[in-house]
Write a structure and sequence with these properties.
mainly alpha; about 60 residues
Length: about 60
């Protein structure tokens, strides 16, 4: 599976946008807070249950 020029362009634009946003201290601090919040125990527990539930459904309904 090859990566086409549209996908390369998307990656380049995303890197440019991330680099520009990284220069702003308030946005950078907000991003750190977002990552810290994502790894909170309660959120990881809910996501873990979702993964387990999805895995069980896939195993049960596999043909």
């Amino acid at each position: 599976m090859d990566i086409n020029s549209r996908e390369y362009a998307f990656v380049i634009w995303m890197l440019i946008i991330i680099a520009l946003l990284w220069c702003k201290k308030d946005i950078r601090d907000s991003f750190y807070q977002l990552i810290k919040t994502f790894f909170h125990k309660q959120i990881l527990t809910v996501l873990g249950f979702a993964v387990v539930w999805t895995s069980i459904c896939i195993v049960l309904f596999y043909e």
